Automatic annotation (TrEMBL):
<dbReference type="InterPro" id="IPR003439">
    <property type="entry name" value="ABC_transporter-like_ATP-bd"/>
</dbReference>
<dbReference type="GO" id="GO:0005524">
    <property type="term" value="F:ATP binding"/>
</dbReference>
<dbReference type="InterPro" id="IPR003593">
    <property type="entry name" value="AAA+_ATPase"/>
</dbReference>
<keyword id="KW-0813">Transport</keyword>
<dbReference type="Pfam" id="PF00005">
    <property type="entry name" value="ABC_tran"/>
</dbReference>
<keyword id="KW-0029">Amino-acid transport</keyword>
<keyword id="KW-0067">ATP-binding</keyword>
<comment type="similarity">
    <text>Belongs to the ABC transporter superfamily.</text>
</comment>
<dbReference type="InterPro" id="IPR052156">
    <property type="entry name" value="BCAA_Transport_ATP-bd_LivF"/>
</dbReference>
<feature type="domain" description="ABC transporter">
    <location>
        <begin position="7"/>
        <end position="239"/>
    </location>
</feature>
<comment type="function">
    <text>Involved in beta-(1--&gt;2)glucan export. Transmembrane domains (TMD) form a pore in the inner membrane and the ATP-binding domain (NBD) is responsible for energy generation.</text>
</comment>
<dbReference type="InterPro" id="IPR017871">
    <property type="entry name" value="ABC_transporter-like_CS"/>
</dbReference>
<protein>
    <submittedName>
        <fullName>ABC transporter ATP-binding protein</fullName>
    </submittedName>
</protein>
<dbReference type="InterPro" id="IPR027417">
    <property type="entry name" value="P-loop_NTPase"/>
</dbReference>
<keyword id="KW-0547">Nucleotide-binding</keyword>
Amino acid sequence: NAAQPLLEIKGLHAGYGEIEVLHAIDLQVFEGEFVCIIGANTAGKSTILRAISRLVPRVSGTLRFAGTDLATRAAHEVPTLGIAHVPEGRHVFPDMGVEENLMLGAFTARHAADLPERMERIFELFPRLRERRGQLAGTLSGGEQQMVAVGRALMLQPKLLLLDEPSHGLAPKVVEEMHDAFTKIHRSGTSILLVEQNVGLALDVAARGYVLESGRISLQGSSAELNANPAVRAAYLGI
Ligand code: ATP
């Protein structure tokens, strides 16, 4: 593929204070791709997403998005470049309604004329949110709050959606709904980088993946290749 990747990470070392968490990470997401990062707890998966969003100090390496050097940008500029990040643990504003939460997602596009249409598309994706549009987000179920968190990110109409453990702690049926939504979001043209501890699910929805072990990429390949890989099966799929 001669095309430039949408997201290009090369030789990234990053961490917190003195502690380096990521060691020489190389990772790419091409336009229109659905890519996952899998791996055990504390492998550093969330740290990769936070590094992209400029929420951890980059120690060294290359972080480029759509031709922009992310290292020169502050965290608050990242959404304006077309990257939306749904962090782990669904951070909704509990005392605000569903619609208000969604509108907050459009903060960099406050004056866009098509905000009602954007919201309408989110309600098509998550019909349960339409029924509950006036309800305080803090009173929603965990799954519904996660829908709000994802919907809020989509209000930006991002080029790249970063999803951190979106199915964590949700009932299997809700996880399925969520993953159906991701497939639809991807089909509508949004590139996705998904972090998941549920490896089976991740490889089901994403086309390609990276395995992260103790801050290093140990394996990468198509989801079919990773699914068939004996090491992946033994370590993550319990087979
Ligand atoms: P999890 O699913 O548990 O979040 P993960 O693979 O996403 O796992 P990270 O959250 O990226 O892992 O954490 C990687 C390492 O970085 C861990 O050892 C963690 O303790 C450390 N770490 C994460 N955030 C901070 C922080 N703000 N300050 C110091 N260390 C941190």
